[in-house]
Design brief:
The protein is an alpha/beta fold. About 35% of the residues lie in helices and about 25% in strands.
């Protein structure tokens, strides 16, 4: 397969940590391919290796067995072509919104004019026009996370990695930002990999949902979501997919359930 921009792949990856002198297997022989422009969600219980997968794709940890690839090339460290958004916005409290986003362009080859234009465009993309000079303490949690998403996208990366970016938000704000993420993905077609505990969020946003088993982390199932966008949260096919994923997470996968969304 010829790699194109935005593809990610793990081939037989095993990741071990040492905890109090004892070995801990976080990922056990995991193989996973993410297609260019795909929105992939990863769900599973705490400690199943979801965030470890994201860290390896981000290039934040190079010590592992097996291969981790971006567009067919080994990932050996962080790259401007892979943006990363965490659960906490991690904004610089002493900088206003526009300069928080601009900070992500520190190692960019863009000139000053192009940087200002990129910052302006991405603040608009996340709907924060008029807040360019606001400081983080003046923003709501949802607004701060929008800044973090703008910062993750401002380099126009091939891939955006999202580590439970909406997990700390209230339900209403979370639902609104899910819609915003979907809108941004439809417009930009950036490859997105989302780690989440929220099965509803996964089936609402993703093209495919990877279900992880408890430690040691292995892929238990990969469920395609072929429902058209924009999606209706109350759609019966979506609710059947949710029920299937919950059964799979509980350890009782019913593979016949995969046909439910295809027939809908």
């Amino acid at each position: 397969m010829v790699a194109t921009a935005g593809s990610l792949e793990m081939r037989s990856v095993t990741k071990r940590y040492s905890v109090d002198g004892s070995p801990l297997v976080a990922l056990d022989d995991v193989s996973l391919a993410v297609e260019p422009g795909e929105f992939l969600a990863i769900v599973g219980a705490s400690g199943c290796g979801k965030s470890t997968i994201l860290r390896l794709f981000a290039g934040l940890d190079a010590k592992h067995d097996g291969a981790v690839l971006h567009d067919g090339a080994p990932i050996v460290g962080p790259s401007l072509q892979r943006g990363l958004v965490f659960q906490e916005p991690r904004l610089f409290p002493w900088l206003p919104v526009e300069r928080n986003v601009l900070a992500a362009l520190r190692n960019s080859h863009l000139d000053a004019h192009a940087r200002r234009s990129a910052v302006r465009d991405h603040i608009a993309l996340v709907g924060l026009q008029g807040f360019e000079r606001a400081y983080p303490h003046q923003l709501s949690g949802g607004m701060a996370q929008r800044v973090a998403i703008a910062r993750g996208l401002v380099n126009r990366p091939d891939v955006l990695l999202l580590d439970e970016p909406l997990g700390a938000l209230d339900a209403l704000t979370r639902a609104h930002l899910q819609d915003e993420l979907q809108r941004i993905w439809v417009r930009e077609r950036t490859t997105m990999v989302l780690v989440t505990h929220d099965v509803d969020e996964a089936v609402y946003l993703a093209d495919r949902v990877v279900v992880m088993s408890p430690r040691p982390g292995r892929i238990r199932d990969i469920v395609p979501v072929t429902l058209p966008r924009p999606r209706d949260r109350g759609d019966e096919a979506l609710l059947r997919l949710r029920a299937h994923l919950l059964r799979t997470l509980a350890g009782t996968p019913q593979h016949a359930g995969l046909a439910l969304h295809r027939a809908a």
